[in-house]
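hey so i finally got around to running the thing on that chain from the lab meeting. sorry it took forever, my laptop kept dying and i had to restart like 3 times. anyway pasting the input first so we r on the same page abt which one it is
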Amino acid sequence: MGKDEKGSIVLDNFNSTANLATNPGFQSTISLASKGVINEKAYIPFEHRKVPHPNSSIGSLVHLLKSSLGSGILAMPAAFKNAGLAFGTLGTIIVGFICTHCVYVLVKTSQEVCVDAKKPSMGFAETCGAAFEFGPKRMRPWANFARTFTDYALTCTYLAALCVYIVFIAENFKEVLDEYMPEYKLSVETYCALTLVPLVLICQIRNLKWLVPFSAIANVLLVICFAITMYYIFSGLPNPAEREMVAKATQWPLFISTVIFAMEGIGVVMPVENDMAKPEQFLGCPGVLNIAMTVVISLYGIVGFFGYIKYGDDVRGSVTLNLPQDEVLAQSAKILMALAILFTYSLQFYVPMEMIWRKLESRVSVRYHNITQVSIRTVAVVGSVALAAAFPDLELFISLCGAIFLSTLGLLTPAIVDTVHNWDRNLGICNWILYKNILIAIISLVALFAGSYVSIKGMIEKFEVIEYLELNNTTLANDTMV
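ok and heres what got predicted. didnt touch it at all, straight out
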């Protein structure tokens, strides 16, 4: 508004619309885009997944069964030895239910944080990190630690499982060769060392595609071995009343650790769910997870129950080692199982190697990639063979690995992730989700500390017995020479 030269009032720059935004002290947050934000379609991760070759629900079920039904099922009779028939049956159902629930909450959390992060899918480590990242403000700085910890824990879990595989191969070959070549009896440690060359060679295969034939052969051998083993278990079963119904409580940690090791396939769950054509069918009732775990728990319970009835307290870390020494069919089962595990080793080795190489690839010059890969793979195999030879007791080794790694990764981690994710969302009536996860965490910690203590104590006692026997044999030999 102003005046012209004649003193008349002129309305210049007059606007009937108030321009509130020109006042820096009052910034309007209302915009025309608000309507678009309000009406924005909710992000559905499943609709944004682009998997080149997705698996059907049946295919995903098969993969999940394959990941859980391995050599661990043959350790179930030894687990029942540390629990008794009654407690072993009940314990297998309870541990199986807890393992299934932990997988369920992990997948459910992953699907929900994918919405928050606007990502189509996430792996195990990514899910753990995202749960903290989109969780309570105080927990957000821990997101990177959670992601890194899970990555390294998965790597250690698979490397420990590879050590168990080596002991398994060595003991089965020793059983057979000691029978047919008694003049060349070698120790388990020596047989562990003899696996070094074939394992180093087979683990140089870097493409997952070329490992498919080995996995297929291993599956066929496992089925044949399992059938032969079941034939011997169910032939001439003694009276169940001859076996303990409930073992000593001090043995229960070994039972829990062994069952967790045998049953837990937490590392492959997220890849299976991420590659499904219809991932919404993974959870639910009936869903892929529930069907697979029902089959797994049933088979593990049957093998453990009847295997313990058959062999009692004499049952060994793998029930194949209890098969008759003087029958060709039984000995062939041991060889087939050892070969199946040998072929499976390279496939299991792929997982930790992928993580290790992901961490190192950017730090190594491209011209040295090949020699670095060969060196790392060779060192990793040599290390696993050396560790296996240092602790060649299969039953205690399985229990120790289950206690340290899978109780932490399969039970404790999902419980923590579920709690953090739901802390600001909904912990249920009377915070029941919180108390449920605390109970799972306590169980995992009991399995961790008690299982590790009992396993390590058992190993020390066996070493002391071996040293005592060697000392006595040396003394006896010296006396004989004198």
